[in-house]
């Protein structure tokens, strides 16, 4: 079975593929202070009933990536492993000013979206940051937009405003909140949906052509998709799918 690992700033998403079928997935906290041995204990517990025959990994957290390398060399030595980094075949040409600064997860998502839906397309990844990644008709990553994520924004507001607090991230009854909780929920959910819609509209205008898909992914996508007017597809496992495709390209 193929083990796919997406290490994000807040969460790590782990998937187990049997050929093209995703049979299990897990979401755990990303701890940048964990050692290789501590990481292995977590994976041993999750994978105790499965035989791993291949591993593919991408990470946006350098300290975790370093420990993951140690863990894989120590405990999975001999298992074919692909780490998404410069030199790995992704099939995604990068046409930005500095390709090396583009996060590996953005390239993985672009490959998956283009493979599933064709291009041009837009990926909206709701994570620690909200990423909008634009893929051309030819499958090129041509750039995008980055904004603070929903949870980061809510945390900052609760920290800096004495009378405000963290609330459950769910859509309120109305846009006009009748109390503090509803007002915060309105600003977070409807506000971020409006932000995405506005950016998507501007991207489409700049491209000068319609896009085939606007694909939402990431841990917080589910709470915004229903309120967005431009998102056309919700694929929670987009990054894992992209990792599987990259592993296949490098075997």
Assembly classification: single chain
Strand count, sense and barrel status of the largest sheet are: 5 strands, mixed
CATH fold call of the largest domain = Nucleotidyltransferase, domain 5
Distance linking N and C termini: 14 Å
Number of domains: 2
Uncertain runs:
none
Please count the helical segments.
7
The mean pLDDT is: 92
- Helix-strand sequence: EEEHEHEHEEEHHEHEH
Which geometry do the CA atoms define? globular
- Strand ordering within the main sheet: 3-2-1-4-5
CATH-level-4 superfamily name of the largest domain: ATPase, nucleotide binding domain
CATH class of the largest domain: Alpha Beta
Query: Total strand count, please?
Result: 10
- Report the β-strand fraction as a percent range: 15-25%
**Class from helix and strand fractions:** alpha/beta
Residue share in helices? 25-40%
**CATH architecture verdict of the largest domain:** 2-Layer Sandwich
Structure commentary:
This protein is an alpha/beta fold and 251 residues long. The chain folds into two domains: 2-83, ATPase, nucleotide binding domain (Nucleotidyltransferase, domain 5), CATH 3.30.420.40; 119-236, Nucleotidyltransferase, domain 5, CATH 3.30.420. The chain has helices spanning 36-46, 62-75, 104-117, 150-160, 180-207, 222-225, 238-249; strands spanning 2-7, 11-18, 21-29, 54-59, 81-83, 121-126, 129-135, 141-148, 213-217, 233-234. Helix 1 (36-46) crosses helix 2. 36% of the residues are buried. The model has no long low-confidence stretch (mean pLDDT 92).
């Amino acid at each position: 079975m193929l083990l796919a690992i997406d290490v994000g700033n807040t969460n790590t998403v782990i998937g187990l593929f049997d050929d093209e079928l995703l049979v299990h997935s897990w979401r755990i906290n990303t701890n940048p202070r964990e050692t290789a041995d501590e990481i292995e204990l977590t994976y041993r517990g999750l994978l105790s009933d499965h035989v791993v025959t291949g591993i593919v990994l991408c990470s946006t957290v350098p300290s975790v990536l370093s420990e993951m390398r140690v863990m894989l060399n120590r405990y999975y030595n001999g298992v074919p492993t692909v780490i998404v980094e410069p030199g790995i075949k992704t099939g995604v040409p990068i046409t930005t000013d500095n390709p090396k600064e583009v996060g590996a997860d953005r390239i993985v998502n672009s490959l998956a979206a283009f493979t599933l839906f064709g291009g041009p397309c837009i990926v909206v990844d709701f994570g620690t940051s909200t990423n909008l990644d634009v893929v051309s008709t030819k499958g090129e990553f041509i750039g995008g937009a980055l904004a603070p994520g929903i949870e980061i924004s809510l945390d900052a507001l609760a920290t800096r405003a004495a009378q405000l607090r963290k609330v459950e991230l769910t859509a309120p009854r109305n846009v006009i909140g009748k109390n503090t909780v509803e007002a915060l929920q309105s600003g977070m959910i409807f506000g971020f949906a409006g932000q995405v819609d506005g950016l998507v509209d501007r991207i489409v205008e700049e491209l000068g052509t319609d896009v085939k898909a606007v694909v939402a992914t990431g841990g917080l996508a589910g709470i915004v998709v229903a309120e967005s007017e431009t998102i056309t597809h919700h694929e929670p496992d987009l990054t894992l799918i992209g990792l599987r495709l990259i592993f296949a390209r490098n075997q």
